[in-house]
Design a protein that fits this description.
Strand content: 5-15%
Radius of gyration: 19 Å
Strand order of the largest sheet: 1-2-4-3-5-6-7-8
CATH topology: Rossmann fold
CATH superfamily: Alpha/Beta hydrolase fold, catalytic domain
CATH class: Alpha Beta
Structural class: alpha/beta
Number of strands: 8
Shape: globular
CATH architecture: 3-Layer(aba) Sandwich
Distance between the termini: 29 Å
């Protein structure tokens, strides 16, 4: 849906901007690049555990097999900042795995990676006693696809990768630097302009809140080249030149009608914070849209719902909306 401005929205934007300042200053509940409020685990017996040895130790993924039994059409779904070690947030909070499998797509949901940005870190975090260095980009582009191919026969080229929030920028990064593996990438409420003023400091605070991870161990100091390598705004030309099919979405911070009414201080706080985070994502996403337009990129579908905050119900809706686009892109060439 196209974004339509309104004078009535100005007050809401001011309130959500104030909530963002509070969320960054006092990281509680949903944080700046988190995955939304966490619901009770919803284990899906239709999925199977798939363990792979890696440089980080054994890593579990959850697999939904395509309904028609094909092994050529594969999508990876990436979690948010507060990724858990038991199940991926997509399984906990949505039916995305089952839904996409009925589109004859094999769904892979890696488990774990809290505050990782699904990237290869420079060092272990020295603030929380992390013993094993995160090497998620290596895992997702080498160790996992190799195991999927050898043991399940999954095609490791022309795959899709979709993430929310933290996983949104990571999905675009993976596609930019591994175009043979990923010809489709989706960012849902992602932060696609992390070099913008204040973004690096906000990410630092959010990662401290989500597991006490030190962002300097990930990409080094804020002025290092690693930050630029992982900024979609900076590497936008790679996505254009690769011809990667992109789906990029962010809502406007206004809760949709019919949602549960917040009750109590924390519900109100989390709703306000979720709204503020989505406003920030929207600003980042609009900046990315302008950059892509400026360089002549026409390989993106933008989805800007007229209502939505930083929460799972909206990301599930985006999966429903993009399924056809994903299905027509990944897998064997026509």
């Amino acid at each position: 849906m196209r974004y339509r401005g309104s004078g009535r929205m100005s007050g809401w934007v001011r309130r959500t901007a104030a909530a963002l300042a509070l969320a960054v200053a006092v990281p509680l509940g949903v944080t700046m690049v988190g995955g939304g409020a966490t619901a009770s685990a919803a284990f899906d017996p239709a999925a199977e555990d798939f363990w792979v040895d890696s440089s980080m130790g054994p890593i579990k993924s959850r697999i939904w097999r395509a309904a028609d039994g094909n092994t050529e059409r594969v999508v990876y779904l990436l979690d948010g900042l507060r990724a858990q070690n038991d199940l991926n947030g997509w399984e906990i909070n949505t039916d995305a795995g089952d839904f996409l499998s009925k589109w004859n797509i094999n769904v892979v949901q890696p488990v774990g990676g809290q505050s990782s940005f699904y990237t290869d870190w420079l060092n272990t975090s020295n603030l929380n006693g992390q013993e094993t260095k995160y090497m998620w980009e290596t895992f997702l582009t080498e160790e996992l696809p190799t195991a999927l191919n050898e043991r399940l026969g999954f095609q490791s080229t022309r795959n899709g990768v979709i993430g929310l929030s933290m996983g949104g920028s990571a999905a675009l990064t993976l596609a930019a630097y591994h175009p043979e593996q990923f010809n489709y990438a989706g960012s849902l409420s992602g932060y696609l302009n992390i070099s913008a003023p204040g973004m690096r400091e906000a990410i630092r605070l959010a990662m401290l809140d989500a597991g006490r991870y030190n962002v300097d161990a990930m990409w080094g100091p804020p002025w290092s080249k690693a930050w630029l390598r992982n900024d979609p705004f900076v590497f936008a030309d790679k996505l254009r030149d690769n011809g990667t099919r992109l789906w990029v979405s962010a809502a406007n911070g206004i809760p949709a009608k019919g949602g549960p009414a917040p009750s109590g201080f924390m519900d109100v706080f989390n709703a306000s914070t979720g709204a503020a985070l989505e406003v920030l994502s929207r600003a980042n996403t609009r900046a990315f849209q302008i950059k892509m337009a400026a360089i002549g990129a026409d390989n993106v579908t933008y989805s800007f719902p007229s209502r939505g905050i930083h929460a799972w119900r909206y990301w599930q809706d985006q999966i429903y909306d993009l399924a056809g686009d994903l299905s027509s892109t990944i897998g064997p060439q026509p």
